[in-house]
Each structure stands twice: as structure tokens, then as C-alpha cells.
Fold these 2 entries.
Entry 1:
Amino acid sequence: MVSITTMSRAAGLALVVALQTGWTPAALADEPWAERTRALGAVTEMPTGVLSKADLARLTATGQALFEANFTTLDGVGRPQATQAIDPTRRKHPRAQVFFRTAGPDAGSCAACHNQPATGGAGDFVANVFASEGFESADFDSLDPQFSSERGTNHLFGAGLVELLAREMSHELQSIRTETLRQARTEGAPVRRKLETKGVEFGFIAAEPDGSVNLDELDGVDTDLVIRPFSQKGVMTSLRQFTVNAMNQHHGMQPDERFGARWTGSDDHDGDGALNEMSAADVSALVAWQATLPAPVRQVPEVDGWAEAAARGEAGFSALGCTTCHRPALPLDSLSFADPGPFDQAGTLNDRQVAQTAIYDFTVLDWAAALPRDDRGRVLVPLFGDLKRHVMTDNQINALGNELLSQRFVERNIFQTAELWGIGSTGPYGHRNDFTTLDEIILAHGGDGRQARDAYAAAPDADKSALIAFLKTLVILP
Amino acid sequence: MKPMRSLFFALPALGGLLLAPLSTPAAAGADFSSDVPILHEEALEAGIDHSYTGGWEFFVGGGVASFDCNGDRRPDLVLAGGASPAEFFVNESQTGGALAFKPLETGLDPEDLTGVLGAYPLDIDNDRHMDLVLLRLGRNLVLKGGADCRFQKANREFAIDGGRAWSTGLSAIWEKGNRFPTMAIGNYVDRSAPGTPFGTCEPNQLLRPRPGDAPDYSEPLTLEPGYCALSVLFTDWNRSGRPDLRITNDRQYYRDGEEQLWQMAEGRPPRLYSKSQGWQRLTIWGMGIAETDFDADGLPEYALTSMGDTKIQKLDEEAGEDRPTYRDIAFERGATAQRPYTGGDHKPSTGWHSQFADINNDTLTDLFIAKGNVQAMPDFASFDPDNLLLGGFDQAFHEKGGEAGIALRTRGRGAVVEDFNMDGMLDLLVVNREHPASLFRNLGAETDWGHRPMGNWVKIELDNGKINPDAVGSLISVRTGTRTQTRRIQIGGGHASGRAGFVHVGLGVSERATIRVQWPDGEWSHPYRVFANQHVRIIRGEANARYWYPATP
């Protein structure tokens, strides 16, 4: 905090003048030790076009700095008059304290939670977050699940590939819808089709000749057929949306593209005195850094017998039925990541809201160039997931049914298949981070995972052990 | 690093913390920060070349009906022509593209289509083909709709006489237990009465269906006194579930008249609300009624257009329960729009059609008003541009007609705010007196590189079943976050203009919404969860909403 009493008389006068006139000596704001984030605003314009490797590196360096920055009140931390809701929502009465464990702001930086085994990684139980719709003004901290759902912090390695997969899958599902409608209109009769993309089935869609579609038989995807691949629940469309949401929830740093005057009528929606806290260009830098985080890899510890055990375990992983949902790889046609992307809606910038998007060509990144490809040239993204939501409890096995709140139309016992790449680096496990061993979390699978879980439970101990050995080879190497 | 940004950024933050840690957020104030839609006039390119013409009988009227007549759910148009024949246009606009309409040859007698002042769509016989009531100078015409925009005269079939009055307004509602709608028809001056036109207002008419399996309106009721009505609207003003009938009247011609509210009771003739019941005398040059509900409390507000000030009436909370006492909030909301906002003519404005809508998809209610001199009244503005009053976060309306591009030198009359190209952004058609109609395509917000879409939206179509299939009278409640918006499905109001079809709701930055419907019989639906930017169909009795998609080329 700047204190007039500790300053020279002239400097103190200068500050008073500055506060009264709007003029400030540059040194006050720009000195190297200023208590604000220098990376904020470092990118002055949103990037456009295909970025060179060097330009991408510069952009991601700023993104990393923002991700690691301990934002301060001078940056705009805190939201005394706004809630954590994804729709800009005013509190009924202001809060004096900056931090609030459950309703947020709850972190000084992104990296404060995303740090296992490195910045951008997952979080320990201590770094759990609390998800609620945030439309009410929370007045007290409570871990009671009737108020919020406690969730572990996911890692972000390979997140760019995940978003690209989701975009291609969304596009294909919507293309199926379009074709089904076209056929129904042409034939003058209802048409029902399977919704399948990249080998993952999402139920059926039925089209009427009048252009209506019946959505009763969808499975594991939202009714707009947009795959939302982020969060434990699979309710966030893009890294950009995730970033905008998280900056508000966890830091009270409100990106203009949703909380600015265009949508709230105010440059200071959260009422903390800081105007225009985060520009679209800042968000772009954060997205670029997250999107280019390398994909997790396989690494077998140099321990006698581990490689053999892992090989047997991988075979068992398939044989037991785990790969029904934890698909070892999904094929990806293109490594060009456009930001803003195509599926976000107003409130998160999308490609219709800007003159030109930026293109991050992942092929210039060594780790991406090294990814395996299939015989059609498609990149095989080894995520061990299906980007689909599943029921995870049943009448007997309901350890993953601890939550009481649905989230963004997704019922409380339904979660997106966890991508297992990197799981060897990111314990504890489960959506609440409260399973300390892989064996425990496997045995907690109910609902759609019940059959594979039962097969695992019935397997000989040696096979179980081998499967664990395999899973522990899926690691993050920063 | 961007030093300049840092300088500008740091000081307000520091000042804010030192001086007013929890100060009120900067309000929008006089600044308007939401998107201003750019409305591109393209009537001729779109195939609409139509003027509303005629002598003093056609100084009023000039309505338009917007509804789907060929089953593709795109809004087609019928434009009143006054002394010229009314014209029908089929919508051939591509989704999100330029507007395109094709004139429709109906095969109807040109004489029947002449003398039309207004047009309202309404499925009178519940056959899921929209019928059409043409309000005429003389016998009103009822056209029964069929497939592929086929229309046939149905006055005889529905036992609707049509009268001989100078009709200007219509509203319809399905009264409790009735198979077919009750229609109220507003009439203007009785030209045959001694002393006409002053003090010779024609009584209005109430058409109630007789019991039976087919529409039979052979026993109309007279609503007397009439005070030269220019707009009528059934409205549930006190959330009683039983709409009453509001009529706005033109003081130019009545003597001792006023605005009216008729109390409806099933099976009994309507009765006027009296002063002792709370109704307060108001005399204006009433031209059009629009209804909204700013705070979704179930007690609607009304915009009444007039010469000079526009009124926005809000139920007076201090008047007592169930008393129709209103106070005018137009001034405090910045919506009086009493004189032109551009062009240098400072004489009073003349307002006609009014319609509430969210034309920039920011969740805030906007208000369109068609403006135009009656003909050449010297005491009123001759250049009198239409208003586009955009709702602001400061609870006030902001005039953006000039910026949007609708400040044309025309004499507006009827109009419809409608999404003609099914892109979720509301377009606009204005019928002009002695001038070609204006058709504006909403391009979105202007940027230095082109136009960008505005906020999210959802459009909703209800299916109430066999009786009243379009669910006229329903209330749609749309919840996003802590905000609730409502829309009432109504036939009536405006100035001689009506619409039917998808109901549009702006969603701003919300990507999901929860919808509940209060059906016409008062029953509330379960919540329907929908995503933004969808055309939604809610069919009574079905568990899930359906989505609808326009045909692609």
C-alpha cells in the first residue's frame, strides 16, 4: 500500500495532485517494484493470423507470466459487488474481504492451484475448488455440498488438443443433425440417426420433416450438440471460456469480453474501483499458453519389471473394458488452433466477433510434431478419454455421487470421462480429489463404468497391479 | 508491456482503493455502452415495393401482419394498402442473409383487398393454418388460411358479418372454456353520423363464439361508448388469469371520451372500469398499445403512442390491490420521445405503432415507435423519424434511431419488429403513408471491420394442442441467472399490425436458459432447459423442448 506519510513532502503532494486531477507520475505505476502485474496489458492487441514460432513463443511467455502472476488489488483482484457467476451478477451487498474460500476469489494466481507436477498441472486436495452457479450472494464459507460442489483442480497439459478434438466432434455432430434434417425434409418423413463422431456414440437424433429435432435420445452431450470438454463435468466449451470464467471466479479479475460495459453497462462491474481489468488480448495470451502446453506422455520408470507389468496392464485395461470410455486415442484432423474459436457464444469471444482470429499452428511445436498419426495422417491424441459425459453412480456403487447440485443442466451424478493422460503425475484422484490410490478410484466407478469396474474387481491381484503399473506410466513431463 | 495502459489503469485503481473502497460501480450514466444494431434498409432489393395510400380515411391505419403462411416457419407478410390493394409477400430470405420476399398472388378479389387499414393473423378455427382478419373501411374481411399460403374468404363460414364500420384495431383471446377465440374490433369515426367526424365515434365490437364445433360469431356484442379506437388489446393487467380489454382512443374526434378498460367476464357483457374502481381519466391521441413487463412481476407496463408524449404506464403500487390505476413513467425512463431526435424540426412528434422487443439481444427491453405526421399538420413535425429507444443498464431508454439507420424521411404507420431471416437478430418492417414501406435488416453491431453479432438469444414457439394451438394468452418465463424475462403471446395492440410465430428473447451473455410456460388455462409447465441461439418448440405435454432449424440451401 502506498502511504503518503512515508513519502517525501513533494512526492506526497504529487500523489494528492494525481488523485485529484487524474495525472500520475509514471514512476508510481511503472516502477519495477510496483505491486501490480507487469504482464497485464503487455499484449496490446489480440493476435491475428498464423503466428510464427517466435511470435507464438512471445505470446505464450506472456500467457505464462499471467498464469503465474499473483494478481493484486492494483490489478483489479476482488469483486466486492459481484458474484462468481458466469453470467455477470451483482451481489446483493458488498463484501469487504478480497478472498472467500468457497465462493471465491480463492486464489492469488492460476498457478497457485494448477501446479502438479508443474505450472499448468493439477492440484492437490488443498487446492480444490467449489463449483456453484453463483447466482446468490454467498455470505459465509461452508463446505456443505448443498451450497457448492467441491472439485479437484484438473491439469491443462494437452488442453489445446482436447479443445481441437471437441471442435471437430461438435462440427461432426452438428453436420449429422443438418444431414438428418435435410433427409427428413426431402423425404417428408421422420428420420432417426445415430450420433457418432470419432468412434464415440452420443445417442440418436430424430428429425421431423418440418425442421424440428427431437432431443430425447441424446446421450452424454448438450442439446446444441456442442462438446464442452473442460471441467470435471464437461460444461466449458473452450479454454477461452474457461479462462474468462476462472479469472472472475478465482481472482475477481473480470475480462472485458464478458464483464465490460458492453454487457454490464459499467467498466467496473465488480465495484472494486479498477476499470477494465483484463483485456481480450490478455485473455488471448492466457489461452495461447494453455493451448500449447505439451501433451502428457508415457514414461516407464527405470525399475525392473515395470515395463513388462505396464505392457500387461495396458492389455488388461482394454480387456477389462476400461477403454470403452477411456479411449486410448482419438484422431484429430488438424493441428491449427484458432482463437477465438467457433463454438463460444456471446460473453466469450468467438470467431464471429473479431475481424480475424489468431491461428496457433501446433506443428511448429516439437512435442506436437512428434505425436503419432494414423494411416490417414490424422494425429492420434492419446488422451484416454472420450469427451463424453456418463452416469457414474448406481444403486450399489455411489461413491462418486457425493454432490447435491446439478451444474449447468448436468445432473449431479454425471461427469465427463476423465482423461487419464497425466494421471501418473496428478494424484489424488476423483472429481473431489479424495481417492488416494488408483485402485480406490477404479473401484468407485458405478453407473456406466460399473461393468469395467466389476471386471477389474474380479481380476487377479497380479492383473490389477499390472493395470496400476500401466496407469502410472501416463505422466506429465513439463 | 504497454506503459500508457499501465498509467491509465493504475491510477483509478489506486484512487478507488484510497478514496472509496466500496464505492458504487461506475454507472452507464448518459453513455450507452450496449450494442447499437445497424438496421439496413433493403425493401426494394428484398422485393417489397408497397405504399399505403388514400385520403383522410387512410390517414390512420397502414398495418402489417407477420406470420407463417406456408409452413416453413419464416414470417411472411401482408401489408395494408389503404386505397391501394393489400399485398401478400412470401418470405424467401436465406438464414442470416439478405432479406428476400416474393409477392404472392392470392386470387382474391382486388376489391376485397382494397380499403384495408390493418391486418392481424389468428388461427380462428384451430386448424393450424393461420387465418387473417383484414380491418377495412367498410366490411372487414376474414380469410381462412390453408396450406401454401392459400386464403379464402370465410366471413360466411365463420358467421362474421364484417360490419360497415371504419375498423382500426383487433385483439383476440380464448376465453375460459371456449373452443374458439373471442375477438374485439376497434372502430374509428362513424362517417355517416350527423356532425361527423367530431364527436361521432363508432362503437366497438366484441365477437364471442357461439357454442359448437365450428366458429360462429353470429351474435356480436356492441361495446358502447366507443371513443374512436385506434388500438385494442386483451391484457391480463392484474395477473388474474382473465384478460381484460384495453382500448386506446383518439381524442381528435371524441367528445368527453377517454382511454378505456373493459372488464371481461365469461358469459356476460363486458363492463367499463370506472373511476371508483381506480381507472383514471386519460385523454390522448391514442394510436397504439404495446405491452411489456419490465420487472417480470406479472403486472405489465404499457406504451401508448400519441401526438407529443409517448406514455409508459405502470400500475401504481400505492393504488391498492386490483385497482387499474396507472402512473406514467415515460419521463423517468427517458421514453417520452415527444419531438424528433434529429433533423431540426422541434415540433411535437406523432407516434403510431409501438412494440417492445430486445432488438440488440442484451436482455434489456427496447421500444420501437413508428412516427410520422398525420398528413400535413402544421403544428406537428413534418420530418418525424421513427424511434429506436434502446434500454440501458441505467434503467433508461436511449434514442439510437439515427445511429441504427432508421431516421428516414417517411411517415410511418404500422410496423412489425420481427426476425425475418431467422438469425436471432430482430429486423423491422415499417408501413409508410404515401411512401414505400421500409424493410430493415439487422446486421448486428458495427465495427471497423464489418458487423458482428450481438448477444445471445432464444426464440420460442408454443404448441398448446388442439384448441388454441398457438397458445394465445400464454406467458413465457425465461430465466437466466438471477434474471427473469417474460413474454406474453398476444394477438392485438400495436397500430393496425399483428404478428404470430416464434417469440424472441435476448439472452445477452447467457448460454443457457430455463423456460417455463403458463399455458392459456393457467397451468404452469415444468422447466425446460435450453441452450442459447436456438429456435425452441415447446409442445404441451412433452418432457423436453424440441429445437427447430431453418432449411439450408
Entry 2:
Amino acid sequence: MADTSLSTDKLLDMYRTMQRIRQFESRVRDIFQEGQIPGFVHVSIGEEASATGVAAALTEQDYITSTHRGHGHLIAKGGEVKPMMAELFGKKTGYCKGKGGSMHIANFDLGILGANGIVGAGLPIATGAGLAAKVRGSGEVAACFFGDGASNEGTFHESLNIASSWKLPVIYVCENNLYGEFTAGKDVTSVKDIADRARGHDMPGVVVNGNDVVEVYEATSEAVERARKGEGPTLIECKTYRWEGHVVGEEAFLGKRSYRPADEIEAWKKRCPLITFEQRFMPDTFSQEELDTVQSEVKQAIDDAVQFAQDSPYPQPEEALDDMFSKE
Amino acid sequence: MRELTYREALREAMAEEMERDERVFLMGEEVGHYNGAYKVSEGLLDRFGERRVVDTPIAETGFAGVGIGAAMVGLRPIIEFMTWNFSLCAYDQLVNNAAKLRYMSGGQITLPIVFRGPGGAAHQLAAQHSQAVESLYAYVPGLKVVAPSTPADAKSLLKTAIRDDNPVIFIEGEVLYGRKGPIQDEEYQIPLGQGEVKRAGQDVTIIAWSKMVHAALDAATELAKEGIELEVIDPRTLRPLDDRMIFDSVKKTNRCIIVEEGWPFAGLGAEIAYRIMKEGFDYLDAPVVRVTGEDVPMPYAKNLEHEVFPGVEKIARAVRNVLYS
């Protein structure tokens, strides 16, 4: 089953990242429901493989842009769970000192150009980072995460057109989880596969099983190689599914109405990214014990992150007026 | 001292800054091969090449956001909007990304980017091509807004804007491009937030920017014949605003008129009037009066356009009003 050239270290890293995302998101969901986290949180349980597989094909110098459902992307790109959790709590020790929150976490040292609360708004930013890399000749690529919903925004088409026209080193990663908020993609989208839209912009469009981290990694690696050689952007569509609602706690305003069939949710849970990995690499590559160890190490890290966030101070009220302008 | 047009002054500013710092580049519709819709960038493509002078598709949201992304990772883009009317397509990128990214990230990044292009009405271009958008941008925390009235101010302020590490909205007067003015040969720097008294006088303060400065100066020439001396002051930068200069002038004249091309409701003049009331209430001998564009989209017919525009006659009427004469 283990038909991949990836080293066991790399594979285990990817598994650890997926575990980290799964457990971070599960804990965020739970403590949000307990009232510990304010605002809107959008968790990505079920979508761990796309974030992980893409980021595993990048270097630390490469860039990503993310979305309102961005915790997984940040963790995959190297985001530490402590300052992430603290940011969700609105604490001073968060990545953005409590000013960004779930939808706006960023860490520029890690090449994370920010989650973004506006659907589709990160697409031109990633394209611009790609332009800068090309102009400087510095070799970075930019990976741009967005959803099927964003592929109906003007920014999607404007960005793909620009990146393709100028052969920019950008990898557009559409995580197609079948729903844009509460509306089925098939009801409002002209194509079945978002990847088909690549053709309209004269770039390769690839559909992958977004729940298979190795498949995502391999497709991304190929796209990164093209990008670094100056051959331009690629659109990768990761077919995936979010197990949870669009936003945690949506049951409160959905009432009895449901926009997703129960059997659909169950069918996708059987295609869980973690189970997919385990079935493929256990026991030949990794023993149950090895993977269990990863799982419990991650659990400890998440426990510590929550504790850190709880114990951290809030920003001082007067800090509300800081960080507006850079002083030259 | 040389004479340059406003257009040439802007071009010199960009060329000098591109010469000085290779991270600076110009991007927008028609800026390269066509030499700019208003010829501001004429010759820059030949001089700096396609890497530094970049023609974009007609995709305002796209190229505004691409500029923001490039600025986030270390370049210093100048983004030209063919006119500020079209920037409204990109309003989300300017308001939700450019203005907020530094603050939202807890001060992690600098965003050195200038958005520039012509604003305000020209002649009979009608509603969608004739509007003053400065209030829309000055409203937003995180953006600096500049609107120069003369070639000398335009050149220096554009250079200052390009060197600023924050997003700057730079609104040029569409009808000012051909206007000539003296420019000193040596390097001079006007900081953002510093206004200038364009004509000293003791009777009434007129606050105006961009092309309305010239209407105010024309009104001052007319009224001087009647012995009324206007003090015309130009903030030049609308955000940050030179409050000091405004208060000093009002303390001297005790009467103030704010002239702006834009619409009256929630316009910049309302904020300025509030500040004067708050800080200078005891110095006022008459209520602050605003002379603005009428509260309608710009009509097309010449006489209707004239009716709607806040020109010299309306300024003179307002002066008599605050002097109770």
C-alpha cells in the first residue's frame, strides 16, 4: 500500500500536522460551545489533508494566503498552536495581540500572509506575492487557499487571469467542500469541477482527492516545480468535505432545517483524511503504537495551548489605538 | 526655479523615486505602452522597462490586490487608477485589506503602497466619471489621503507618499494636469499632514484642496476688489489633517468657509466644521459655512453641470453670508 517515494519522517510529519489540525479544531469547537471563545469560528474538521499536503510541498520562505476557515492552513504552514489559540481567545499573547481573531490570523515570519474574512479577498494578495517573487527573482512561490464559494467571486477570475498572463509562481488551491456557507455549490456554480475553470485562463487544472494527503502533496509538488521553473500557475481542486457546519453553533439559527443530507455527511466521514492515511500506511510503514503516540503528544500540546490561552492576559484597553501606522 | 505642469511634476516624482529605490514600480491600466491615460507616466516604460512599469488588465480589484500582496512581501508599488471612479470596483481591497492588514495583524507588517490617479469632475463626463471620492477614503482608519493643488505640492507630496511605509490614497485633480507652476530645482520635502496658506488675508478663512483651491483663489481676487481679504488655506493632506493651520487661521479671521467638490452629506467638510466648532467655538463670529457640490449625481448638460458645481460665485455668496454683508 505504501506506494510513495516520501520518507517515513515526512509521512509522519504530515500525520502529526493532520492530527494537530483535527485536535485543534475539535477543541476550538468544544470550547466555543462552552462560551470560552467569542465571535465566529469556522473549523475545518475533515479538510486536514488539503492544508497539510499543500504546505508540506512548500518551504518556509514560500507564502500562503488563507480564508475564514484558516486555522488548518496556518498550522500546516508552521503556526504554533499556543499563539493561535491565544489569538482566538482575544489575548495579548496571540499572533496578532488579540486584534485579529479567528478570521484574521497572520504570521509574516512564517510566510502566512493572513487568513481573510472576506471571501475571495486573499486571491489577489497571493497573486501579488507571486509577482514580487518573480520580479525579485527570489524563487518563492505563493499558495492560495480558497473555497468553492470564492471561485464564483470576481477576484478569482481576475487573479487567475493576471497570474496566467504573467506566468506568476502561484498555486491556487480550491478546497471544494461542496457548500458555500449554506448553499450547495451545484446550485450556484456553472461547472461541476472548479478545476475546469483553469482552462478558461490557460493554466493546468487538476482534480485531486482532497482527503488523501499524499495525493495532495504530489499534485502540489508538481505545481510548485512548474512555478519555480517560471512556467506559471496551477489550479488544484481538492475534493473534500467539512464535517461541521459553516460556522460553529449554526444550529442555533438553522433551527430544524438542514441543508446537508445526513447520509452525505456519514459517507464523507468514512473518507476521513486520518483514516485514509492510517489505512494506507498502517501497519506496513507505521505501527498503531507509533501513530497513537503522535495522537497523544498532540493532545498534550492542545491541552497546553488552551491552558496558555486561558492564563494569558487580555490586551490593555489603550492598545486598541496602537498598530495603526508604521512610523518611518 | 523651473515651470512644470502638474502632470510633469507627478512624472518627475515617480521617476526620481524609481531611480532612487528599485523596489518602487508603477502598475495600472495603460500606464506603459499607451504612456498613461492622462500621460502622467509618459516615457517611464522606455526608461525603466516592463518590470517596473506594468500594464494590467482592466481588473481594478485584481491589480489593486496584487499591489497589496506585493507590498506585503517587500516591494513598494504605485498603483494607478485610470480615474478614482474606477477604484470603487476595488474598494474592498483598499478598505478591507490595505487599510486593515497592519492593524489586524497586531502591527506585524508595513504596507508601503500608493494608490494614485485623477479624481473629481472634468468637463461634461457625467455622473460615473465626475465624482470626488476623498471623503470615502478619508473616512477609513488606516489610510492616508492626499489631494495636492499645485505642481510643486504634487511633486513633493507624491515623493513623500512613495517613501511612506503605509497605504496612501493620492488623489490628483483631473483638470489640474495641464496647469503650470514653479518648482524648485533642489530636493524639497513636504511631510504628510502639513498644509499651506495659499493666500493670506484677515477677513474670512477659506479651506479648500485640490482644484477648489484655485476657485477659492479666483474668488479671493474678485472680492479683493471690494476690499474683502480672504485667507485661502490648503490642507494638501486630508488625513492626517493639519488642524493647527486651520485653527490658527480661524482664530485670526473668526469666520470660515469650507469648499469641497464632493457631496455635502457626511462629507469631509462636515468633519472639519465639527473640529473648528469644538476647538474654536469662542473665536467664531459666524457659523462655519460649507460650499459643496449639490446633493445629486453629476448631470451631463453643460448648464446643469455648472449649476451643481461649487464654483467662484457660490464661494463669493458664502463669503457675503458669513460677513453678514
